Amino acid sequence: MSLKAKKEVLAKNLPRPKLTRAQITQIYRHLQSLDPAPRTELNYVNPYTLTVAVALSAQSTDVGVNKATKALFEKVQSPKQMIALGEAALIQHIKTIGLYKTKAKNVIAMAHMLMADFDGEIPQNRADLIKLPGVGRKTANVVLNEAFGQPTMAVDTHIFRVSNRTGMAPGKDVVQVEHNLLRVTPEEFMLHAHHWLILHGRYVCVARTPKCFNCAISEICKYTKKTPAAD
User: Fold this and answer.
1) Which CATH class is domain 3-38+152-214?
2) What span, in angstroms and rounded, lies between the C-alpha atoms of 52 and 62?
3) Which of 21, 105, 126, 178 to pair with 170, CA 20 to 30 A apart?
4) According to CATH, where is 1.10.1670.10 located in the chain?
5) Residues near 20 by Cβ (< 8 Å), separated by ≥ 6?
6) What's the CA gap between 49 and 146, in Å, rounded?
7) Distance CA 73, CA 115 (A)
8) Stretch(es) of the chain classified as CATH 1.10.340.30
9) Separation of alpha carbons 135 and 223, rounded Å
10) Residue 132 DSSP code
């Protein structure tokens, strides 16, 4: 199925964007001008360590995960090495991040599944990725985009907020927002789109008091309670 056909299928039963295609294109061009080729802020060595890092980042900050994985990824860069490390030693590396006991179990179980079912390699499709313990749709989309250059939309709380606030891709849940973004995002911006939106939500369109006064797209955005600059 072509990208155009996929977008036509996704259009069914989705909330209508509040912005025109031209306005959405303008948003992406603004964000592109600020950072032409953005990358994840998680530190990693290869697709395996990226998958582990993204799985660990759930309900945790990238900064916190990077601190926890610095020494870990110096020792462990493959599922086989993770199994050899063991759950107890893994916990000692990641105990500073949230839900570390559950995450440690999932990371070890993921390593076993990768060795048993995927020859120790990270699969390059969503269906297989989400079979891995601790890997959901968002994690899979991040890995596919960052490690394998696939044009996916990994919708987190930042993208969900930006998409609804701006009106570019509204949705009642992350799946609706993902599908709407896939539908309205021009193909030329697809590869980096989710990174631009994440960074915009993380540093400008923040949750409590958005920095509308310092926003490159404030004049396009449909958010009505824009924050003025401090006197």
Assistant:
1) mainly alpha
2) 12
3) 126
4) 3-38+152-214
5) none
6) 12
7) 18
8) 47-148
9) 33
10) S
Closest CA to 181 of 155, 158, 215: 155
Cβ–Cβ under 8 Å, residues 104 and 87 = yes
**Integer Cα distance of 159 and 154 in angstroms:** 8
Residues 123 and 87: their CA atoms lie apart, in Å, by 23
DSSP per position, 16-56? PPSS-HHHHHHHHHHHHHH-SS---SS--SSHHHHHHHHHH
Give the 3-state secondary structure of residue 158: helix
**Mean pLDDT for each 10-residue chunk of the chain (231 residues)?**
55 85 97 95 98 95 96 98 98 96 98 98 97 96 96 94 97 95 96 96 95 94 89 57
Assigned superfamily of 47-148:
Hypothetical protein; domain 2 (1.10.340.30)
Residues annotated as part of the active site? 138, 156
